[in-house]
Design goal:
single chain, 8 strands, alpha/beta, TIM Barrel, binds 3-methyl-2-oxobutanoic acid, 278 residues
Amino acid sequence: MRTKKVRTTDLREMKAAGQKITVLTAYDAIMARLLDSAGIDVLLVGDSLGMVVLGYETTLPVTMEEMLHHTRAVARGASTALVVADMPFLSYQVSVSEAVRNAGRFMKEAGAEAVKVEGGKGVLEVVARLVEVGIPVMGHLGLTPQSVHQLGGFRKQARDKEAARLLLEDARALQQAGAFSIVLESIPDEVAGEVSAALSIPTIGIGAGPFCDGQVLVGPDVFGLNDGYVPSFVKQYSNLREVIVAAAREYAREVREGEFPQPKRESEPVSTTPAREK
Ligand code: KIV
């Protein structure tokens, strides 16, 4: 079991050593503890929270308070994984000073160790200032869900030569501004490979093929918890939805039929510990 804390600086060393970086999204303490104990390197409190946990259609309505609340929970559950908080829509786009204040809240009030922002040239000033004040920043290029309406839906990006060239330019500029890594979402494998080879900071792919320096997926998609839309690039490693529904049905049946709980035997000592602490 890993005992050493993962730092943003470790990720660059992992890339240099050819060691793939593992990232999953997490939204609460119980999942953070499980993923941390599985040795996942980075827990991203993604603003996918809005769609996966809170039931919104897009990530746009997610608020700072919602993200802070869930980041606190993940930070409490993580012991060695690096905790990265996603900055929600309009928390960093209005002005550099608002971006610093909001990013600072994630570090100061919620226990995040880095933040993530979406976009290229439009966020360079913000990235540079955050890095200057000591806040590590993860970039995010390609399909940037906060721009879903401008992109015309959740669709693959950088599909032609010019768009791929602009993406590479953005990636280089983010690295230059001080980002410690960049998420590449839904872009062709070869474009992700070219960007990864051109940068010294690690790329973390999602729907971007095998040539990235690491991979990220949305936790509930991976574990088969999500009964809504799941992108085709996701590999589902388990079907917890079926496991949980079956367990809940069995519990309900036993309660209804008087099988659970069983009466205590006379000689059994009565515990004073609250049930959840046993
Ligand atoms: O919000 C999120 O979960 C993300 C990842 C999918 C990269 O941005």
